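Memo to structure team: turn this sequence into structure tokens by end of day. - J.P.
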Amino acid sequence: MVDLTITPANVIAGGSATKETGIAGVSILAGQTVYKEAATGQFKLADSNSATVEQRTPYGIALNPALTGQTVTVQTSGDLGLGAILTAGSGYYQSETPGGIQPVADLAAGELVTLLGFATTTSNLSIRITPSGVVL
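Reply from structure team:
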């Protein structure tokens, strides 16, 4: 499916952002979705069709790049300048590509449907992570 093309340098938290800082368990780019691994507390790339429920459930969106073992800041709610072209009023979802974000039209069989948020403008995503519990 077709994920958003995100320019990592343009990913900027808005004034209403709720953030958390932690350790990256894998290499992460700004703008990628992550989950928080329960066993280690590390952030890793979320994936809507992973074999594990934990990995299929995004925790937030990375605000900075990080290599394994480095500090990463993750936005869990609020406004985010995503560094991508969005369609105002549309919902955006966790992708089957690890760390990816996709529009609703690209959801496919085998994916756990999780809403990441709605675009309030063509550049702003209002993050409200909502797992549906439904696998297509």
